[in-house]
Specification:
Layout: E1 3-12, E2 15-25, E3 30-34, H1 41-48, E4 56-61, E5 64-65, H2 71-81, E6 82-85, H3 97-107, H4 112-125, H5 141-153, E7 159-163, H6 171-188, E8 191-195, H7 199-202, E9 207-212, E10 215-217
Parallel strand pairs: 3-8, 3-9, 6-7, 7-8
Antiparallel strand pairs: 1-2, 1-4, 4-5, 9-10
The structure holds adenosine-5'-diphosphate (ADP) and magnesium ion.
Length: 233
Amino acid sequence: MIVEARGVSRSFGSTPALREAGLAVDAGEIVAVMGPSGSGKSTLLHCLAGIFTPDSGEVWFDGRRLDTLSDARRTELRRTAFGFVFQFGQLVPELTVADNVALPLLLGRVRRRDAYPRADAWLERLGLAELGKRRTGELSGGQAQRVAIARALVGGPRVLFADEPTGSLDSLTGEHVMDLMVGLAREEGTTVIVVTHDARVAAFADREVIVRDGRVTDPLGAAAARVPGEVVR
Ligand code: ADP
Ligand code: MG
């Protein structure tokens, strides 16, 4: 098990977003997280990635408890072990494509002369080699999302989290982006946890789970959902 949530609860004010949610993901697995809007998918992903701290419950990464680490150590772990693709890419529009992709490396104190060749190599793998010098504000949605994926993968993460990475794309471009992301992840042996609304996108995953009302169930709505804290596998 590389990533695991055990009985994770998290509220925003008086709104419970997660209610003792459990999910366990094996190394190298590609898991699609589906479910209605507002059911807690993004909150779950952010908790698993150490971006949010749960109110209660445990989050584990590779045998280590993530939710009890200090902020500094959790930030460091996120930078070295995780990649995160946000729904709208969240690229820095004033920077070039190559700058955006090199950014996580530069923040991790990789030297510029090492960071940029690595960024360029990823751009090439994603079919974006020609676009390195362009500002990200000038890109199409599909191009921007591929840049966001390159940026999430450039540091060689063990786990790639993606929150509706194809949500702003038409379905053909979305399938293409998902196909690329999953293909690269499989080549690298990266674990992928991807939130999506699109069943055709989810079809690229090894397994689907559904989030409903802040709990994780399997696609048949199996009993695990009704047993607080139980882990869906
Ligand atoms: P999903 O990603 O499945 O659409 P979310 O995890 O974003 O669901 O949200 C789950 C619930 O938590 C919703 O009721 C949502 O309104 C609430 N919520 C999520 N993030 C916040 C936030 N930052 N502030 C207040 N409420 C939030
Ligand atoms: Mg969401």
